[in-house]
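Design request, tokens follow.
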């Protein structure tokens, strides 16, 4: 017999309440645990900063000078926080005093400037 067919007056009103949300309390810390595990996995995929040879540094300097002279767009591969990134830039200046490459992202507004340290540049390709 289905309990839904029994009239309410005849049903037993002494039904145990249960533990409610108390039984789920240990799982309240799970989001923090997931964040920690995700951070640890991300840290394992990081790489150390590559060291470039003198020949490679001279070649990148030559490409940068040629791109500035011809006002050509470049693609810069750079290192940041244990990872490699790529960005296409229109060169504004290469400031040797602050050791920064200053450029504007390709096809973006004029106020969208990018500053990349010379130490972080891994490769430069003229587009």
């Amino acid at each position: 017999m289905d309990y839904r067919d029994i009239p309410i007056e005849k049903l037993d009103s002494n039904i145990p309440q249960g533990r409610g949300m108390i039984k789920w309390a240990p799982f309240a810390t799970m989001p923090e645990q997931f964040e920690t595990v995700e951070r640890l996995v991300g840290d394992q995929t990081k790489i150390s900063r590559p060291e470039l040879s003198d020949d490679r540094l001279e070649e990148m300097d030559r490409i940068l000078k040629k791109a500035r002279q011809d006002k050509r767009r470049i693609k810069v591969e750079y290192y940041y926080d244990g990872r490699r990134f790529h960005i296409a830039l229109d060169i504004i200046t290469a400031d040797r005093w602050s050791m920064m490459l200053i450029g504007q992202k390709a096809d973006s507004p004029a106020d969208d400037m990018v500053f990349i340290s010379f130490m972080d540049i891994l490769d430069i390709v003229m587009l």
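Comment from the thread starter after seeing the answer: thanks! The chain has a mean pLDDT of 82.
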